[in-house]
Every structure is written in structure tokens, then in C-alpha cells.
């Protein structure tokens, strides 16, 4: 071995040892923040995202998708299972997740966005096996494979449903006729071959649960202050904003269903209806359904101070900075 090759080998070994020592020190001294109120750093989030994507793709490659996956019968059974077990963490068109899901980190994926991108086999694998350290459970011990495929069938239809159509599917009288045709026609016309994360229940014939009422914001316990942009950056992750919107500098979901918030400060209107002012943004964040009925954005039960802080952060997102 030449002298330069020996030097290069020693240099690589020294760098590897230094990196390992640095990593061990970060772990041993508790320097990495594991709290759910603090997001992963962008590099860590990107690494975990790649690991998840590749792991799921490799393990789902040999799964056979049922020929009748898009049948209306499967879709209707999957609707009941989805409402019983999935909407609580993932939400649905116009419906917020339950309060306990809002603080999960990583945030539960928006299944509308994931269903547009993930193949059915990947969605089945994730639902059946779950994902470590995400809060996503494995359903294989609680549901049959047929039931899991029913949920996959419904999730493939989910991106085609408006908030009103999704609500109407929960009405027993309508489900047998007009309202259920939204899911049935979407299924038979072939909802996209993409889908995602979570699912399911115990009995496919269980009645669909009615959507939960909007989460009431808690009563302020302290005097309200002027919005704080840094506090807003942290708060928006606790209300799952990153599952639907791409936000510059904030780690979030790979697949998004809402518009990017890049350049939000430069836009003239909020949701096309309100002049873009901090107070109007506060009102929109606290009750989007009152301002724009039928919007896909649900009422998430923001505290007023959190809404002020998030509005202040959004004012920093300018394309001209």
C-alpha cells in the first residue's frame, strides 16, 4: 500500500471514530431533545423519512392487491372501519383529529395526501404492521387482512370526497342511497392507486360513527400577549399544520394536501376570502369553518394565544426576505 493510501485510510478511520465519539457524547449527555414539543432537526427528519420510505417499499413489494379493491362493497365497509379507528388520529376532509393526536410527534400523516401518493400495497403493509416510534399501531392482531384491505379501499376514495360528502356518508339514511354514491362512484371509477398510513376496526358492518364536534378552545388562563413568531413556529407543529402544509424550515410530511405556506406574508388574502392581516389570520386559524363553510381545513381548537403566535410566525414567511 502506498504512503498516500495509508494516510487516507487512517484519515477515514479517524473521522469515523470522531463521528462515533461525537454521536455517543450527544446521546450520553442528553443533548438531543426527545420532547414531543420540539421537532426533529431537518437532517434527522430527512434521514428517518428516507428510512421509512425505503423500508416500506422493500417490504411491500411482493404483496398482492385484491382484484376487487375498488368495489363499492369494500369501500362502504372500509368507511365504517375508518371512522371507528383511523379518523381519531388522522382526521378526514373537514374533520379534525382528536385532541390527543394533535400533540404526537411525528405528527400522524394526512391520509388524503398519502392516499394520492402511496400504492395500495404500501398502505396495506403500514396498516398491518404499524411503524415504530410514531404512534402508528400494528392492526394485524385486531383486524383480519380482509378488513385491512377494506380500509385501504376506503382510503383510496378519501381524496375524492369533499368535507360535505364525507359528512353525509355518516348519515345512516343517506348512506344506503344518495350520499354513499359519492364513495361508490369514486371507487368504481377507480380512485388513484395511491394510499397511506393508518386504519381499521373490529366489525366491517359496524355503523359509521358520526363526526365529532369541533374541539372547543380552552379558556385562557393568562393575559393574552402580542404574537410571538418563535412560539408560533413551535405551536403550529402541535396542531398538525405540518401534515397538510409545506412550511419553509419546518420538518413535516412528505405528501401535502393544503397549499404551501411559503410566502404567506406576501399574499393579499387568506383562503381567498379575508384580507391578510394578523388579526384576520388569528380568526381564520381559530374557526376556519365559520369564515369559509365547507373548507377542507377543520377547526382544530386553537387557543387564542397560540393562534396569535402562529399568525406572527406566518408573517415572517416572505419570499422577499
Task: Give a brief outline of the structure.
Pfam families: Cytochrom_C, Cytochrome_CBB3. Residues 189-226 are annotated as: Disordered. The chain is mostly helical and 321 residues long.
What CATH architecture label of the largest domain applies?
Orthogonal Bundle
Total beta strand runs: 2
Shape: globular
Mean of all residue-level pLDDT scores? 83
Could you give the distance between the termini? Answer: 53 Å
Structural category: mainly alpha
Strand content: under 5%
> Widest sheet: strand order?
1-2
Pattern of helices and strands: HHHHHHHHHHHHHEEHHH
**Low-confidence runs (pLDDT<50, min 5 residues)?**
173-212
How many H/I helices? 16
Given this structure, which CATH class of the largest domain is correct?
Answer: Mainly Alpha
Please estimate the helix content: 40-55%
| CATH topology (level 3) name of the largest domain | Cytochrome Bc1 Complex, Chain D, domain 2
Domain unit count: 2
If you compute it from the alpha carbons, what radius of gyration comes out, rounded to the nearest whole angstrom?
A: 22 Å
CATH homologous superfamily caption of the largest domain:
Cytochrome c-like domain
Biggest sheet layout:
2 strands, antiparallel
